[in-house]
Amino acid sequence: MKTYKIALLPGDGIGRDVTEAAWSVLEKTAGSSGFSLEGTRLPWSCDYYLENGSMMPADGIETLRSFDAILLGAVGWPQKVPDSVSLHGLLLPIRKAFVQYANIRPHRLLPGVQGPLRSDGFDILCIRENTEGEYSGAGGRIHQGTDNEVAIETAIFTRKGVERILRFGFEQARARRGKLASVTKSNAQKYSMVFWDEITHGLAAEYPDVDVTSYHIDAMAARMVMAPESLDVVVASNLFGDILTDLGAAIQGGLGFAASANINPDRSAPSMFEPVHGSAPDIAHLGIANPIAAIWSGAMMLEHLGETAAAGKVMAAIETTTARGIGAIPGKDKTDAITASVLSAFG
Ligand code: IPM
Ligand code: MN
């Protein structure tokens, strides 16, 4: 029987609650789908930092490299460790080291879930550049603490980085409804964003079957609220994609429904699957976090591993659950009740 080795990184706060929930669903799915999952829990988190002085061991990346995929909960507990330390010590280095350059975030309403908009139907796939741009980490501070203090943080856009994420977006659009929206702010940022637009237009010639439109980020934010049904695949830089996908989460009913996949399309290193929501320390361990985003992220993991039928079973079980009204209204049902409903939906 095929066995996949999965690294489980529950991380902090509700990350722990939802990862266990997702794992129980994935294990059950594997059992009825002819493969097995071997999970290894790694305690890397802010608590780990307080004990060890780092978010993960020095050879953490090498440890993760031997897995087929990584399932992550959430990272961050600012009352214990500054976010700038915890995120740059665990989540962000994994995305970069494993060249998970495509962050895929689906936004659509699950059955029974009421979004805040009037719009009845939309199905958007946001593709966020995940390794460079505004998150490059290039910069510094001088004259710290004085009146002359200067802080510089430079966004880095490389031809290779921009071209590969756009190409990924074009391929996704081709496999879906054939529409690609490329998001920049090239009316104000005349170097990097004009560069991005040029690469978009250059690639468009290679994909005559894809209908491409360039949007500015501000106009795209309005469009996602006013006319989400007009969008198919949306490609954006790291920071723009970060912001747009919280907006996407909002229109799909809340962060409890927003799943994501950090994909290494070349498969030269493991990909990582995580809900878009954070660690939510205020509701950690109260048993009330919605596990649907984490379970959906688990389905994306199965899909990436090639277990398409199993991924479909998980999605169907999620949809049966929300259609029953369970987990569909933020804050109404407990984590365990939602998980139990998803498990029972397998029949
Ligand atoms: C996300 C998160 C992270 C990001 C944070 C926690 C660094 O907001 O995955 O969307 O900005 O990438
Ligand atoms: Mn975010």
From TrEMBL:
SMART domains: Iso_dh. Pathway: Carbohydrate acid metabolism; tartrate degradation; 2-hydroxy-3-oxosuccinate from L-tartrate: step 1/1; Carbohydrate acid metabolism; tartrate degradation; 2-hydroxy-3-oxosuccinate from meso-tartrate: step 1/1; Carbohydrate acid metabolism; tartrate degradation; D-glycerate from L-tartrate: step 1/1. Its EC number is 1.1.1.83, 1.1.1.93, 4.1.1.73. GO terms for cellular component: cytoplasm. Its main location: cytoplasm. The gene is ttuC. SUPFAM superfamilies: Isocitrate/Isopropylmalate dehydrogenase-like (SSF53659). One of its GO terms (molecular function) is tartrate dehydrogenase activity. This is D-malate dehydrogenase [decarboxylating]. Pfam families: Iso_dh. Residues 5-342 form the Isopropylmalate dehydrogenase-like domain. The keyword Manganese applies. Gene3D superfamilies: Isopropylmalate Dehydrogenase. It comes from Rhizobium phaseoli. Belongs to the isocitrate and isopropylmalate dehydrogenases family. Its cofactor is Mn(2+); Mg(2+); K(+). Keywords: Lyase, Manganese, Metal-binding, NAD, Oxidoreductase, Plasmid. The keyword Manganese applies. NCBIfam families: TTC.
